[in-house]
């Protein structure tokens, strides 16, 4: 079978082949004709039928049984290359030459039958693409001036609003404008429980609306929807070869040539050196050729790897290539980001304090008692005013603490002033100009580095307060105002993030699976990180890290362990994800960065899928080992039997094709892993 070509065909032909399989049906018909021709020739020779009947039956068996093998051989010659198919054609013709037409017909029948079964195995493992394509509706009920119009999804523009009723499959990605409902996202994320949706929530194409009507504003073109991107990812994953498969691809040509060389020697040596007669010598050489052909070896890897990719997809887990399945199976150390990975990522502002003596001028300037200008009218800095000023600066930042600050200000319906000159110091803090004055918002490292050489009124008071808050597991930052070049601590903000409900159980399961080391790499402060690690039972904690500093710790882990996995949200963790042996992204259903940067994506944003990912990878590796044992073992046994006892060609054919079918079916067992 030309496994290589079957695995690297282009996307459109694969999708067409999945929705309409006439080629497979044609192969089945050819196999049936080959079987009938083989049986007809054998029975005809037994009952003394006319020779034209016997040879007509065998002729049909040879033509239809060898049709696809000849096609693939001709295609390979043009490269130029020699495929396994050519070995089988030569062996069948050799059997015919020595007046053993039944053995040749039997070889072609079993070879073509195993080819159909291999195609079935690969087709089953690729059925994820077909099911994903079928999940996408062709039209949407677009709302225009209060009236609904059925519109093909390719004609729906970003910004249009469509209506989804209970039981409808959602056609496009968008955000809920009106209505409340629950949505079954299991087909996309693997979540078994429907997810509540209300105005402002994201919604994804291919999922099913359950209980209420929704009006949804389109946010992505059809080709950029979560479902479309997932389809592309699955397609690409199935084309990326695992390391073992890459090795086999490189060895296939020399192996096939080696089999031909062995066959020639098996003919020449006995005849030239031992004076054996031609017919039995040639018969044994053909038997050796069949037995040594590597069909089962070649199909071992794709049968297992593609099945594992499909099994993971049904569980909300996307492997972006076969190589990642093999690597994940070797993982013995896991590094976690904290925020958004071990925690929910829904950081909330929990405490807000102004420093005694801080004032704000009525024209927007910021002062303290030490810097107060008597020419300005001032008032004490209130908590709401401090929050509004902090939100003005943070509104320009995408950091999770900044988002929590702005959200808290909006919840209090505060008037957030404009800000200009925004600058961010990664991992430390930000600054901007508000009302003509400069505001700095940062952690103690910001104060110790960016403002190291500056006098700050209330520095120790603010730092002491921050340390006390961090002692309780809260992340804290200082708000520092700058007036006429003089700095003053205005107050401080404290934030908390909820640990994921499944984080502790996930870490326990990873330990049960044999993961030797679990570490946390975070940019958060030491006390908050230690507090989280103690609750989860993490081995090592490295806190207050800049994104690039995480690389050093990943590389240190790689020196001590076979394979290191990094789990993160795909945003600030990109350098560490790229460095790790295997990168795992959270929340792939709606997160562009996770889909693009990670090797494995947890589509449902659930850590509990992580132990399944490693378990599936290890099962796939074990399946590969079993397949190789079957394939190489069958070859070794048959070669020994041929040389020692003269194993007949029919038994070699059965052993060769039987092992090929067996490894295919063994690989298919992975499709049900975790069900």
UniProtKB/TrEMBL annotation:
<dbReference type="InterPro" id="IPR027256">
    <property type="entry name" value="P-typ_ATPase_IB"/>
</dbReference>
<dbReference type="GO" id="GO:0046872">
    <property type="term" value="F:metal ion binding"/>
</dbReference>
<dbReference type="Pfam" id="PF00702">
    <property type="entry name" value="Hydrolase"/>
</dbReference>
<dbReference type="GO" id="GO:0005524">
    <property type="term" value="F:ATP binding"/>
</dbReference>
<dbReference type="InterPro" id="IPR051949">
    <property type="entry name" value="Cation_Transport_ATPase"/>
</dbReference>
<protein>
    <submittedName>
        <fullName>Heavy metal translocating P-type ATPase</fullName>
    </submittedName>
</protein>
<keyword id="KW-1003">Cell membrane</keyword>
<feature type="transmembrane region" description="Helical">
    <location>
        <begin position="286"/>
        <end position="309"/>
    </location>
</feature>
<dbReference type="InterPro" id="IPR023299">
    <property type="entry name" value="ATPase_P-typ_cyto_dom_N"/>
</dbReference>
<keyword id="KW-1133">Transmembrane helix</keyword>
<dbReference type="InterPro" id="IPR018303">
    <property type="entry name" value="ATPase_P-typ_P_site"/>
</dbReference>
<dbReference type="InterPro" id="IPR059000">
    <property type="entry name" value="ATPase_P-type_domA"/>
</dbReference>
<dbReference type="InterPro" id="IPR023214">
    <property type="entry name" value="HAD_sf"/>
</dbReference>
<keyword id="KW-0472">Membrane</keyword>
<feature type="transmembrane region" description="Helical">
    <location>
        <begin position="626"/>
        <end position="647"/>
    </location>
</feature>
<dbReference type="GO" id="GO:0006811">
    <property type="term" value="P:monoatomic ion transport"/>
</dbReference>
<feature type="transmembrane region" description="Helical">
    <location>
        <begin position="52"/>
        <end position="70"/>
    </location>
</feature>
<keyword id="KW-0813">Transport</keyword>
<keyword id="KW-0812">Transmembrane</keyword>
<dbReference type="Pfam" id="PF00122">
    <property type="entry name" value="E1-E2_ATPase"/>
</dbReference>
<dbReference type="InterPro" id="IPR023298">
    <property type="entry name" value="ATPase_P-typ_TM_dom_sf"/>
</dbReference>
<dbReference type="InterPro" id="IPR036412">
    <property type="entry name" value="HAD-like_sf"/>
</dbReference>
<keyword id="KW-0406">Ion transport</keyword>
<feature type="transmembrane region" description="Helical">
    <location>
        <begin position="255"/>
        <end position="274"/>
    </location>
</feature>
<keyword id="KW-1278">Translocase</keyword>
<dbReference type="InterPro" id="IPR008250">
    <property type="entry name" value="ATPase_P-typ_transduc_dom_A_sf"/>
</dbReference>
<keyword id="KW-0460">Magnesium</keyword>
<feature type="transmembrane region" description="Helical">
    <location>
        <begin position="24"/>
        <end position="46"/>
    </location>
</feature>
<keyword id="KW-0547">Nucleotide-binding</keyword>
<feature type="domain" description="P-type ATPase A">
    <location>
        <begin position="134"/>
        <end position="235"/>
    </location>
</feature>
<dbReference type="InterPro" id="IPR001757">
    <property type="entry name" value="P_typ_ATPase"/>
</dbReference>
<comment type="similarity">
    <text>Belongs to the cation transport ATPase (P-type) (TC 3.A.3) family. Type IB subfamily.</text>
</comment>
<keyword id="KW-0067">ATP-binding</keyword>
<feature type="region of interest" description="Disordered">
    <location>
        <begin position="358"/>
        <end position="377"/>
    </location>
</feature>
<feature type="transmembrane region" description="Helical">
    <location>
        <begin position="104"/>
        <end position="122"/>
    </location>
</feature>
<dbReference type="InterPro" id="IPR044492">
    <property type="entry name" value="P_typ_ATPase_HD_dom"/>
</dbReference>
<keyword id="KW-0479">Metal-binding</keyword>
<dbReference type="GO" id="GO:0005886">
    <property type="term" value="C:plasma membrane"/>
</dbReference>
